[in-house]
Amino acid sequence: MEFLTLTEDEIRGYRDLFPTRVAENVLRSSFTFLVANEGKTSAGLCFVTREMQEEGAEKTAWILHFASGDKKAADALLTEYEKILKKQGIKRSIFSLPGELKLSDAEREALSKKGYKVTVKETDNLTVTVGKLRLVEQLKIQDPPKNIRPLKDFSSRMIRRGLGSCLTLDERAHYEDLQELPVEWFDPELSCCMEASGKLVGFFLIHKMADVEFRAELLTSTKEAGKNGLLQMLRFSATRFCDRYPEEAMVHLMGRDEATKKLMTYFFPGEAGDTVLYAEKKG
Questions:
Q1: Of 18-22, 53-57, 111-115, 192-196, which gets the smallest average pLDDT?
Q2: CB contact at 8 A, 87 and 119
């Protein structure tokens, strides 16, 4: 069995294993695309590491995509994945795929064999449409704060400097590679920044995944943004989203920390979180 860690050029040859929405992350250093090949059979897996900055928290790898129609290839791929984690000193592995997906027999058997007991789980993440956003009165603003502006209004240098400060001071969990991404990764109209004393002290960064599908990558601020900084940025971007896109357009909100979870609960009380196929393994 041959194993490959794919580059941007190589992943184009594995479109049957990695859909575009997954494959676009190949340039990100936190994401690893691994394939197992033997003859005409193959299996593909995408996993990501996250920097959990809370004191005492252990580093975790997340399997975000797994595809195989061959039991031998699927089993070999998971074995290779676990070897990589061992070399990196990662002892906790989480399998998490969108709940609407269905595992093949080969995928389910390989996961079970490795000790992953897959269940359907509700997450702290939430997917909302423009139609839903327009119904939330608390999100509507007539006069946006003058110190919050879209990402496109700031230079790349100022953005990188401010983002570096926020990520250093912020204890929320985030992808390790956010500072490495080109500014173009984030939507220039929907993403926004908060400015104070000539520097950027808050960010709501949104990535465009498809024509009408977006993912919130980061909502963060320093103390200089004030108590309501996150709330104001969320309102600012939500208003622009509703002004520019049709009702079916959607954004995936990530509940990665308590502050973000509280905001999501405040704006969308009683709304069920996204479901995933979930399994966890340690050791």
A1: 53-57
A2: no
Lateral strand order in the sheet of 250-253: 126-129, 250-253, 213-221, 199-210, 192-196, 148-150
Quote the pLDDT of residue 54.
53
Q: What is the pLDDT of residues 183-206, one digit of tens each?
A: 999 999 999 999 999 999 999 999
Structure tokens at 54: 């809370």
How many whole angstroms separate alpha carbon 168 and alpha carbon 160?
A: 12
pTM of the model: 0.88
Asked whether the beta carbons of 37 and 2 are under 8 A apart, the reply is yes
The whole-number pLDDT of residue 53 equals 46
224 CB contacts (<8 Å, ≥6 apart)? 196, 197, 201
What domains, with CATH codes, occur in the chain?
2-117 (3.40.630.30), 127-274 (3.40.630.30)
